[in-house]
Amino acid sequence: MIRFRPTVAEVDLEAIRRNVRTLKPDAVELMAVVKANAYGHGDVAVATAALDAGASWLGVALIEEGIRLREAGITAPILLLTEFPPGGEKDALAADLTPTVYTAAGLTALSEAASALGRPARVHVKVDTGMHRVGLPPGRAAAFCTDVLDLGMELDGVWTHFARSEELDEPTTARQLAAFRSVLGELQAAGINPRYRHAANTGAAVAIPESHLDLVRVGIGLFGLAPAAPVADRVKLAPAMSLRSRVGFVQRLDAGEAVSYGHRYRLDRPSTIATVPVGYADGYPRALSDAGRVLIRGRRYPIAGTITMDQLMVDCGEDRVEPGDEVVLFGRQGDEEISATEVADRTGTIAYEIVCGISERVPREYRG
Questions:
Q1: Which position among 24, 39, 261, 284 bears the catalytic label?
Q2: pLDDT score of 3
Q3: Which residues contact residue 161 at a Cβ distance below 8 angstroms, ignoring those fewer than 6 apart?
Q4: What is the pTM of this model?
C-alpha cells in the first residue's frame, strides 16, 4: 500500500540477530518468543531473523499467531505458551503447533483431537512453581505426566515460568527453580525423561545460568530491551525498534499563548512550535503530554501540551526547525538516544507496553 504519512516504526533485523547470538547460552537451545506480533516488531520478519541467528524454537500465545507463522512458510517448532482454547485443538495440531497442557480437561480434549486426526501429539507440561498464572501444582506434575504418556502422547517438554527473575537479589527465583528441579527429580525417578526442560526467561537467561537447563525462552531481550535495570547492567543488547516521523508544520507563537487541548501548556516566552503527525492512536502514550521528549536535529525537545489522537506539538524554543525535519520519538538520532525504557519510565509503565502498543496503522519498515 502506498504510504503518505511519514510516521514509521523502523525495525533493525540485524539487531534481532545480534541479540539472539548474545543471549543464547552455549550448548543450550533458544526459543524466540514472538507473541503479540513479536512485541509489536512484526512476527514473521522477527521469527525469520531469530531462526537465522540460531534460535531453534518459537513461542506464541495464540493459535492464530502460530498459524500465521506456518502460513508464512516457517517450519521451526512453535510452542503455544498456554493450553489450546476449547475447540481449537484440531486446527492447532493440524498446523503442527506444540501444545502446552496443564489441566485434565485440556489433556482430554487434546487426546481426542489427536485421535481424530490420526496423529500423535507432542506436548509440553507447564508446572506452576510460584507465578500462579497457569500451570500444575508441583505435587501433581508427576502423575499428570504419567497420564500424558498413558494417553499415547509424547512428553516433549516440562517447563515453568519465573515471576521475579529480573530482581537479582530476590530469593523467589531460587525457590521456584528448586521446586522445578524437585519435579524433574520425581519424573526421572519414575523413568520419565522429557527432551526439553525449560524455565529461564530473559532475566534468567542473562543472570541465572543454573536455570538454563535445555532451553531458554527469550522474549523482551530479543528486541534489545532488558526486563529491568539490574539485568541491563549484565548484558549489552541492541534495541531493534525506533519510532520516527517528520515535522509537518511550524509556527512561531508569542509569550502567553497556549498549546493544544485544554490550554494546559502556556508559553512564558516566544517560541517555535513544531507539529508532528503522531498521536495516541498510533500507540504513543497520551500520558506523555507535557512530559515526553523527542529528538529533532540531534537535540531533545519537550512535548508541548496534550498529545492528540493524530498529532503532537513540540516546543523548540529559539532553535531553527523546518517542515520535513526528522523527529525521533524513541530511538537514536546522531549522538542522542531516547530509549523505549525511558519513554516507559516517563509514563509509569514498562518498555514491553510501549513497543507492543505501537498500533497497526504505523507501518513497520525493516532493515538489516
A1: 261
A2: 85
A3: 126, 131, 133, 135, 199, 201
A4: 0.95
